[in-house]
From TrEMBL:
<feature type="domain" description="BRCT">
    <location>
        <begin position="638"/>
        <end position="724"/>
    </location>
</feature>
<dbReference type="Pfam" id="PF16589">
    <property type="entry name" value="BRCT_2"/>
</dbReference>
<dbReference type="GO" id="GO:1990683">
    <property type="term" value="P:DNA double-strand break attachment to nuclear envelope"/>
</dbReference>
<dbReference type="InterPro" id="IPR001357">
    <property type="entry name" value="BRCT_dom"/>
</dbReference>
<dbReference type="InterPro" id="IPR036420">
    <property type="entry name" value="BRCT_dom_sf"/>
</dbReference>
<feature type="domain" description="BRCT">
    <location>
        <begin position="10"/>
        <end position="108"/>
    </location>
</feature>
<feature type="compositionally biased region" description="Basic and acidic residues">
    <location>
        <begin position="520"/>
        <end position="529"/>
    </location>
</feature>
<feature type="compositionally biased region" description="Polar residues">
    <location>
        <begin position="234"/>
        <end position="243"/>
    </location>
</feature>
<protein>
    <recommendedName>
        <fullName>BRCT domain-containing protein</fullName>
    </recommendedName>
</protein>
<dbReference type="Pfam" id="PF12738">
    <property type="entry name" value="PTCB-BRCT"/>
</dbReference>
<dbReference type="InterPro" id="IPR053036">
    <property type="entry name" value="CellCycle_DNARepair_Reg"/>
</dbReference>
<dbReference type="GO" id="GO:0006302">
    <property type="term" value="P:double-strand break repair"/>
</dbReference>
<dbReference type="GO" id="GO:0035361">
    <property type="term" value="C:Cul8-RING ubiquitin ligase complex"/>
</dbReference>
<feature type="region of interest" description="Disordered">
    <location>
        <begin position="217"/>
        <end position="243"/>
    </location>
</feature>
<dbReference type="GO" id="GO:0005634">
    <property type="term" value="C:nucleus"/>
</dbReference>
<feature type="region of interest" description="Disordered">
    <location>
        <begin position="459"/>
        <end position="559"/>
    </location>
</feature>
<dbReference type="Pfam" id="PF16770">
    <property type="entry name" value="RTT107_BRCT_5"/>
</dbReference>
Length: 875
C-alpha cells in the first residue's frame, strides 16, 4: 500500500516544477486545450494566464509553452529566454515515461522536421542504420531499438524482418517505410510525404520514372502567394466563437506606410477594422508595434526593423484580418516587404515553371518577379532556368536539350530568403525524389532575417531607433469622419527624430518614408560579383536590353550617398594598393614580405612609437631600416623561437632590436606566432598564453639561458644542452613536460576536437586568451553573455558541432567562469540552455582548461566544478 501511495505521489509531482502556458491554435483550442491543461495540473503543473499588457504571454512566470506551432508573437523572445516550447505530445510522452521528456524532441520548430517521429531500424546494414539514426536525432526525432508502442516508423527493406512481424503481432500503429524516404528528406531539408515509400508495395519500386505523378496543392498558400493582394478579405470567425469581431490587433499600434498607395476608401476601411478590433492607428514609427509597407527602403522601415518591431506588407496584414490569428511576417516570403530593385544579378534570369499548380504556381511566379527576374509562361531557348516540381514533363525534356538550368523551387526560395543567388549545382536544388511532387513543400522557407539585416538595415548607420518622436493617434472608439483628411493629418505630423550622433531634427515622417534606399554594402556588392560565376553564358542575354539599363534615382542626394558609400567600400583596397606601390618592385613585382622582414618591421614600429619625439628614435629607425635591407641577404633561419617569460629586454627596446638582429644573423628567428615555432624558450614552466598555445604544437622546450649564452658567446649553441628542467614546476603541474610533449605530438592539435567550450565575458585573463588556447587544440570557443538575441546564435553554433563528446563522458559542454556574483548569475541559464539541447552542462574553473592544455590529456576531478558555495566564499 505504501508503494502505491509513493507511486501516486510521484505521479502527481511529475510536473511539479512546470509553469505552463497553452498557445491557442486551430488544432489546439477549446475542449482539447482544456483537457491538456487538466492533465498537466493533475500531475502537479501550474497554468499561467496571459497578462493584461497587450494580452502577451508572461514569459517571466513560465517554464514551458505548449504549442503546435512556433508562429506566435513571443516565440523568438521565449527562445532567447530559454523557455521550452513543446508540442502537446511532450505531455503524454513524459507521463508514459514517468519523467520529463527531452523538450527538443517535441519542438514545433519546422526546421526539426522529424520531430514527433520515433524510428526503429529493422535488418539494415549498420552503416545505413547509423546514418538514419543520426539524421533523425539531428532533426528532432527519436530512436528506439526494440519495437514498442511509441514507435511511429519502422525502417525496413521488406516486411519479412523480425521487427516488422513483431510490430504486426503487437498491433503497433506505425508505418513501414524504405530507408530511401529518410535519404530524400535529408537531402531536401524538408519532410515529404512517406506514402510512395511505404511497404509492402512501395510506389517508388512499382512505378516507372516516366509515369504521371499526381498533382498536389497547398491550401495554406492562400493569401500568401502575392505581396500585393487585389482585394480586402473578410474577417473569418473562430470556430469556437459566434461573432466576427477582430481581436488580433488588441492593444497594438499600427503604422501604414505611404508606399502602400492605398485609396481613401480602402484606407478608411482598413483603419476601421484595426480600430474596431481594439487597435490604434499611429503616425509615429517609434510608437508603432506593427509597421506595414511595400518596399524595404524607407527610413521608417529601417527604424522599425532595427527596433525588432513587426514589419510586414499588405498581404500579411490581410492574412491577419482573414484568419484573426497571429503569424510572423517572416514565416512566408511574400508576407515581407519587397526590394524595389530586386536581388542583384537576378534581372538577367528568364524563369519558367513546370509541374506546380494552383496557389503554389501563382506564389512561385510572383516570387520570381519579386526577386527581380523575368517570368515566362512558355519556355524558349533563351530561358535561363526551369523551376520544376518533378522531372516528368515536356518542359523538362526541352530544358535538357537546350541546356537550361533545371532546379526545384528551393533554389528560388532560398535565393530570395538569403538575398544571395544560390548556386544551381548544389545537390539540394537539383534533387527530385522519384514519385514525389515537390509542390507539397512549397512555401515552407522563411525569410532569413540576418541576411536581410546585413543588406537593408545594418545597425549603426543612419538613425537611432531608441529616439522617440511626437505621436498622433486616433481614439480607439471614434470613427474618422473623413479617411483622407485624417490620414493626411497623421502623415504630415512632424516629430523630432535625431540621427545617430547628431542633435539636429530631421524632416517629418511623411518625407522620410520616401527617402533614399539603404547604402550599398560590401556584402551586397560581393553577392553581385559572385553571382556572375553562376549565371549562364552572356550570349543568352544579348538582345534583352536589361544589363545596360540606368537605375533610377531619387535625386542628387541619393546619387551622392551611393557614390560616397561605394568610395567608402573601396577605401581599404585603395589603401592597400597605395601601400603596395611604395614597396621595392611595386605592386606586381614586389612580392610579399618575408616573415623575418615582418618581425623586424614590427620592432622598428615599436621603437619609433616609444621614441618618436627624440633623435634617438630617428636613429633607431634608420638602423632598423638598414637591418631590414640587410636581412634580405640572410639564409633561411634554422630555428624559429618563441619566448615566454623572458625578462632581458623589458624596458630596453633599443637593446632588443639589436640583439634580435644578431640572433637572426646566427639563424635564430624570434617569432610571435607560436603556430610556426620549432622551439619554445622559457625560464620555467609557465601558465602563459604563449607557453600553453605553443605546447600544443610540440616544439622543443628549452631554457631562456640558451638565448643569453648565444648572445654572450656570439654563436649558436646546441639547443639539446638547454632542455628545460623544472622539477618543482612538474610536481606542481602533476605531470612531466616530456610526457606532455609526447602527447602533443600524438594529438596533432586535436585534443579538443568536437568540443564546444564557452567563456564568460569577464573571465580572469581575458576571453581571447582562452579562445586561442581552445582553438589551437582543435576546439571551438564562444563567449557566453546570456543576453537577448545571443542565445539563438549560440544554439546554432552548438547544433553545427558534431556531438561535443569525449570518450566516456558523451555530450558535455563546458562554461569556463570566474566566481564573481555577476558571472554566477549566468550559470543557471547556461545549464538550462545546454540541458534543453540533450547535452550535459559543466560550469568549471579556468584551472580546468589550463591544466588540460598543459598536460595535453583529458583529466577530470570534481574540484573543477563551480558551485554557489564558491561564489559565497569570494563574494
Amino acid at each position: 500500500m505504501a508503494a502505491m501511495d509513493l507511486d501516486g505521489a510521484e505521479s502527481k509531482s511529475l510536473f511539479a516544477q512546470v509553469q505552463f502556458f497553452i498557445v491557442q491554435a486551430e488544432d489546439l483550442q477549446g475542449d482539447s486545450a482544456r483537457e491538456l491543461a487538466k492533465l498537466l495540473e493533475e500531475n502537479g503543473a501550474e497554468e499561467i494566464a496571459r497578462t493584461t499588457v497587450a494580452n502577451s504571454i508572461p514569459l517571466q512566470d513560465i517554464t514551458h509553452i505548449i504549442s503546435t506551432t512556433t508562429d506566435f508573437p513571443e516565440y523568438e523572445v521565449a527562445n532567447d529566454a530559454l523557455k521550452s516550447v513543446v508540442k502537446p505530445d511532450w505531455v503524454k510522452a513524459s507521463i508514459a515515461k514517468g519523467r520529463l521528456a527531452n523538450p527538443r524532441q517535441y519542438s514545433p520548430d519546422p526546421r526539426l522536421f522529424f520531430s514527433g517521429l520515433v524510428v526503429c531500424c529493422a535488418d539494415l546494414p549498420s552503416g545505413d542504420s547509423d546514418a538514419i539514426i543520426g539524421g533523425v536525432l539531428a532533426m528532432g526525432g527519436l530512436y528506439s531499438s526494440p519495437v514498442s508502442k511509441m514507435v511511429t516508423h519502422i525502417v525496413a527493406l521488406t516486411m519479412e524482418s523480425d521487427k516488422c512481424k513483431t510490430a504486426i503481432s503487437k498491433n503497433v500503429k506505425c508505418k513501414y517505410v524504405l530507408p530511401h524516404w529518410f535519404d530524400d528528406c535529408l537531402r531536401l531539408g524538408k519532410r515529404i510525404d512517406e506514402s510512395p515509400y511505404c511497404l509492402p508495395d512501395p510506389e517508388i519500386l512499382r512505378k516507372r520514372p516516366e509515369d504521371r505523378i499526381l498533382e498536389t496543392g497547398r491550401q495554406d498558400m492562400l493569401g500568401a502567394s502575392s505581396p500585393k493582394p487585389d482585394r480586402l478579405p473578410t474577417p473569418s470567425s473562430s470556430p469556437s466563437a459566434n461573432r466576427r469581431q477582430l481581436t488580433i490587433f488588441k492593444g497594438k499600434k499600427v503604422l501604414l506606410s505611404r508606399d502602400l498607395e492605398l485609396g481613401s476608401h480602402l484606407l478608411g476601411t482598413i483603419e476601421d477594422l484595426i480600430l474596431n478590433g481594439g487597435g490604434m492607428v499611429t503616425g509615429s514609427v517609434y510608437k508603432a508595434d506593427i509597421f506595414i509597407c511595400h518596399y524595404r527602403e524607407s527610413l521608417d522601415y529601417r527604424i522599425a526593423s532595427r527596433a525588432s518591431k513587426d514589419v510586414g506588407n499588405l498581404a500579411w496584414l490581410y492574412h491577419l484580418i482573414t484568419h484573426n490569428a497571429w503569424t510572423s511576417p517572416l514565416r512566408r516570403l511574400l508576407h515581407y516587404p519587397v526590394a524595389r530593385q530586386g536581388l542583384p544579378g537576378f534581372s538577367r534570369f528568364r524563369i519558367s515553371l513546370s509541374n506546380y499548380n494552383g496557389e503554389a504556381r501563382v506564389y512561385l511566379e510572383n516570387l520570381a518577379k519579386a526577386a527581380g527576374g523575368e517570368f515566362t509562361k512558355t519556355m524558349k531557348e533563351d530561358n535561363t532556368h526551369l523551376v520544376t516540381a518533378h522531372m516528368v514533363s515536356e518542359k523538362c525534356d526541352a530544358a535538357k536539350e537546350w541546356n537550361i538550368h533545371t532546379v526545384n523551387h528551393l533554389w528560388l526560395e532560398e535565393s530570395y530568403a538569403k538575398w544571395q543567388i544560390q548556386t544551381v549545382s548544389h545537390p539540394r536544388y537539383n534533387h527530385f525524389p522519384t514519385r514525389t511532387n515537390l509542390g507539397e513543400v512549397v512555401g515552407l522557407t522563411p525569410v532569413d532575417k540576418k541576411a536581410v539585416e546585413k543588406v537593408f538595415f545594418p545597425h549603426g548607420s543612419d538613425v537611432d531607433p531608441s529616439v522617440d518622436g511626437d505621436d498622433v493617434m486616433r481614439p480607439m472608439t471614434a470613427k474618422p469622419s473623413n479617411a483622407t483628411s485624417s490620414r493626411g493629418t497623421n502623415a504630415m505630423t512632424a516629430h523630432p527624430m535625431r540621427s545617430a550622433g547628431s542633435r539636429q531634427d530631421v524632416p517629418s515622417r511623411a518625407l522620410q518614408s520616401d527617402g533614399p534606399t539603404p547604402k550599398a554594402s560590401k556584402e551586397n556588392r560581393r553577392h553581385t560579383e559572385g553571382n556572375a560565376i553562376r549565371t549562364p553564358a552572356p550570349s543568352r542575354f544579348i538582345g534583352h536590353g536589361k544589363e545596360n539599363e540606368t537605375p533610377s534615382t531619387t535625386g542628387s542626394r541619393s546619387a551622392k550617398d551611393k557614390a560616397v558609400a561605394k568610395l567608402h567600400d573601396l577605401a581599404p583596397d585603395i589603401a592597400l594598393f597605395q601601400k603596395e606601390r611604395k614597396r621595392v618592385g611595386g605592386v606586381t613585382h614586389g612580392g610579399r614580405k618575408s616573415s623575418e622582414d615582418m618581425v623586424l618591421e614590427i620592432n622598428r614600429k615599436r621603437s619609433v612609437s616609444r621614441d618618436e619625439d627624440t633623435d634617438t628614435g630617428a636613429d633607431e629607425e634608420t638602423r632598423a631600416m638598414k637591418r631590414v635591407k640587410k636581412s634580405k641577404n640572410l639564409a633561411p633561419p634554422s630555428m624559429r623561437l618563441v619566448l615566454s617569460g623572458y625578462k632581458r629586454w623589458v624596458g630596453a627596446s633599443k637593446k632588443e632590436g639589436e640583439e634580435r638582429a644578431r640572433l637572426r644573423e646566427m639563424g635564430i628567428l624570434i617569432v610571435p606566432d607560436f603556430a610556426s615555432c620549432t622551439h619554445l624558450a622559457s625560464p620555467h614552466i609557465l601558465r602563459t598564453q604563449k607557453f600553453i598555445c605553443a605546447l600544443a604544437h610540440a616544439p622543443t622546450i628549452i631554457s631562456t639561458n640558451f638565448v643569453n649564452d648565444c648572445l654572450s658567446q656570439n654563436k649558436v649553441l646546441e639547443p639539446e644542452d638547454y632542455l628545460l628542467q623544472d622539477t618543482e614546476g612538474e610536481k606542481r603541474m602533476g605531470c612531466k613536460i616530456s610526457d606532455s610533449l609526447a602527447r602533443a605530438k600524438s594529438n596533432k592539435g586535436q585534443l579538443l576536437r568536437g568540443y564546444s567550450i564557452y567563456c564568460t565575458e569577464n573571465i580572469h585573463g581575458g576571453f581571447e586568451t582562452y579562445k586561442s588556447i581552445v582553438e589551437v587544440n582543435g576546439g571551438k570557443c564562444l563567449m557566453y553573455r546570456a543576453r537577448a538575441g545571443s542565445t539563438a546564435t549560440l544554439r546554432a553554433g552548438l547544433d553545427e558541432e558534431s556531438d561535443g563528446s569525449e570518450i566516456g563522458t558523451p555530450g558535455y559542454v563546458y562554461l569556463i567562469s570566474g566566481t564573481t556574483p555577476e558571472e554566477a548569475k549566468l550559470w543557471p541559464r547556461f545549464r538550462q540552455m545546454i540541458e534543453g539541447m540533450s547535452k550535459h552542462p559543466r560550469v568549471v574553473r579556468h584551472e580546468w582548461m589550463l591544466e588540460l592544455a598543459l598536460s595535453q590529456k583529458h583529466q577530470w576531478c570534481d574540484t573543477y566544478i563551480l558551485t554557489d558555495k564558491d561564489v559565497a566564499i569570494t563574494a
